[in-house]
Amino acid sequence: MTAVLITGMSGVGKSTALAGLAARGFPVVDTDEPGWIEVVDGERLWHPARMIALLDEPRSGPVFVSGTVRNQGRFARRFDAVVLLTAPIEVLLERIRLRSTNDFGKREDERAAIVRDRAEVEPLLERTATHVIDATEPPGAVLDRLVAIAAG
Q1: What are 30's strand-pairing partners?
Q2: Which SS3 state, helix, strand or coil, does residue 81 take?
Q3: What DSSP state is assigned to residue 26?
Q4: CA dihedral (23, 28, 32, 36) positive or negative
Q5: First-last CA distance in the chain
Q6: Under the phi-then-psi rule, with left for phi > 0, alpha for psi from -120 to 50, and beta for the rest, what region is 25?
Q7: Rounded to 10 degrees, what is the CA torsion of 51, 119, 86, 31?
Q8: What residues have CB less than 8 Å from 110, skipping those under 6 apart?
Q9: CB 70 within 8 A of CB 85
Q10: Coil, helix or strand for 39?
Q11: Is 95 exposed, middle or buried (CB count within 10 Å of its CB: 0-12, 13-18, 19+)?
């Protein structure tokens, strides 16, 4: 089984990548969907039992998992690859301004948090990433790279 974590800041294209991978026939898990997150002391974290069950599940091909939460490092070694999608802050803010699938980032305080997280959190994600992809590349190129990473 190959499990690939796709992580990165809000607006970088994680959901777009998952949709493209699903369209190519790959199983995908968006941990922003209900049931994957538990709130502990006001912090959104992956539900440990659910994540362990997913990563222990036998499969014949790769699974792509998307998310960015504080406790993802706890599971990093369970993934065969951890891929950080990255883009300049201006690109992230413009994508968030234009998107209609998620309201996060529409308020000024949320946009300020995104700017802060890009500066403070993304470097931490990069340290645990096995691969970094420039998410300003065309979506098809990003998908091709993700599939190649899963293939080893």
Answers
A1: 66
A2: strand
A3: -
A4: positive
A5: 12
A6: left
A7: 20
A8: 104
A9: no
A10: strand
A11: middle
Distance, in Å, from the CA atom of 111 to the CA atom of 117, rounded to the nearest integer, reads 10
pLDDT digits (tens, 9 = 90+) for 134-146: 999 999 999 999 9
What's the CA gap between 139 and 124, in Å, rounded? Answer: 25
| SS3 (DSSP) at 151 | helix
The pTM (predicted TM-score) of the whole model is 0.93
pLDDT in tens, 85-106: 999 999 999 998 888 888 888 8
**Amino acid found at 146:** L
Is the distance from CB of 44 to CB of 37 less than 8 angstroms? yes
CB 136 within 8 A of CB 88: yes
Task: With H, G, I as helix, E, B as strand and everything else as coil, classify residue 10.
Answer: coil
Q: 66 near 18, Cβ under 8 Å?
A: yes
